[in-house]
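User: Is it possible to get a 3D structure for a protein together with its bound compound? The compound here is iron/sulfur cluster. I've pasted both below.
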Amino acid sequence: MNPLASDSQDPLVVVWRVTERCNLRCPFCAYDARLERPRGVADPAEIRRFAAVLADWSQATGRPVLLSWLGGEPLLWKPLEALTRHCRDDLNLRLSTTTNGTTLHRAEVQAHLREYYTELTVSVDGPAALHDVLRGQAGLHDRLRTGVQALVRQKHLTGHGPLLRANVVLFRETVTAFPALCQSLADWRIEEITCNQLGGLDRPEYYPAHRLLPPQVDWLTARWPGWQQQLADQGVRLLGGAAYLHRLAMTAQGRHLPVADCQPGESFLFIDEAGRIAPCSYTPQAYGVPISALHTTGDLLSLPDRFRQLRRSHRAAACEDCHSTQVCAKFTTVEADVRSYG
Ligand SMILES: C[S@@+](CC[C@H](N)C(=O)[O-])C[C@H]1O[C@@H](n2cnc3c(N)ncnc32)[C@H](O)[C@@H]1O
Ligand code: SF4
Ligand code: SF4
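Assistant: Yes, that's possible. Here is the predicted structure of the complex:
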């Protein structure tokens, strides 16, 4: 019997922000193309090396690894396609990404996504006119819809292709359009819908006038189970249950939600473009470990303990008000809301 084998068969999700470059001008986002800021990119050789370490860990523990590319806009980063092929074909990792969809109309991009990805998340923030205004370019929404619908068609024809998810940012101005948006995403045959409330760290100047208000979160919370049921009847999962709605409510009320034990590094890891690995996207600075120092399965197995110790000795301010969407149960269904906050 393998002594490292884990009881859990849940994938280890590794979100890797591979580029800070983007082609869109979303006024709510830190990577808005208009901003003059450093635009780091990951080192492709280091991705290859560390992906092999992840693959060894997966072999040793029997747990799959889902590598999820994030940006900026990951699908515009030139080295990504070859890296994705290598990770899937040579290392047997699962692949996922989140995209603004500006390349999805291209047949070769669709073919690559269909062939290589386990999951694809597209960002959709409202009905056509609203989405285009929010993302700073006319025609974006319709091009995105055309790309997604082509993927859906091909998936149904071939029986092969990624799980299709839409992620929606909820703003003060858009929240009432959310149920109609969910219905149109169901009509596109999107399989899962997730949402983020507008977050405040990215663009502090934009946030105050656009953040959700407490009565809006109450409105969402009261209707959420009904929407979940209506969508489920159409085969669409609206993810996020009571714990996630609680997180939204606390933020809207300006209240903190500290997390005593987030089980750091057990089921989720974040890597930034500079190659720091951390328990979540909020903590590379506080708890980040350079991946260049991690070479073996043993090194990866030691990460949860290292993160726990760091959280004990140098607790980051982020942990006093945890916004990690993994910890706040953004991806769970109602039945699976099990996290405890402390
Ligand atoms: C930073 S983007 C990177 C991927 C890609 N460029 C995209 O737009 O999908 C990842 C996700 O974060 C969301 N996002 C961006 N700024 C946000 C903010 N201030 N608050 C909450 N979500 C935000 C985007 O809508 C997107 O779904
Ligand atoms: S939300 Fe995505 S598309 Fe918009 S600026 Fe940010 S990274 Fe770019
Ligand atoms: S911010 Fe949240 S997920 Fe990140 S380390 Fe702190 S408690 Fe854990």
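Strands lie at 12-17, 65-70, 94-99, 119-123, 163-170, 192-197, 237-238, 268-271, 276-278, 289-290. The longest helix spans residues 140-158.
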